């Protein structure tokens, strides 16, 4: 069966690389380098994160897009042929919400595919809850879920749900 391509996008520090690592472990192909600008973390993704994994009977190709705006051109490249989109967003960084909304609107306007929003870092102080993020992004509340991207069970639950949505549309 054709592999199912899933794109994970979101601002810097949203947990995209952590998400890929917790699902793929050592198999994750990442492109982390020392951050050249102050992003509030030591390393950042330059090109993408990638990995292949099974979700039930489906073979999933997971692509993580880099967050920094100067890598915008990668979004379309990576979105080509994607059947599902996961937008990750750090709940403790409300200043990233406008960028997240722009990214979501941009990608969905060009690739109207099944999508979920995952809000990470809810364990940290003063985080925006998924319901608040849903209002901001003008999405129905069930489209926005909280997760800890570092936890495999959380990541797998969100990915499984998105894969089910993607398969339903693909096979319709
Ligand atoms: N405390 C906490 N840290 C998280 C959570 N999700 C991700 N992180 C951390 O947030 C930081 C940024 O994540 P990273 O995967 O590098 O973000 P990326 O820029 O989207 O690839 C990393 O240190 C992650 O381990 C979470 O739910 N809680
Ligand atoms: Mg990254």
Automatic annotation (TrEMBL):
Per the record, the similarity remark reads: Belongs to the GPN-loop GTPase family.
Concerning InterPro entries, the annotation shows: Gliding_Motility_GTPase, Gpn, P-loop_NTPase
- The residues that cross the membrane are none
Its recorded name reads GTPase
Give coiled-coil spans as residue ranges.
none
Any one GO molecular-function label of the UniProt entry = GTP binding
What keywords is this UniProt entry annotated with?
Answer: GTP-binding, Hydrolase, Nucleotide-binding
| CDD domains assigned to the protein according to its UniProt record, in alphabetical order | Ras_like_GTPase
State the Pfam families in the record.
ATP_bind_1
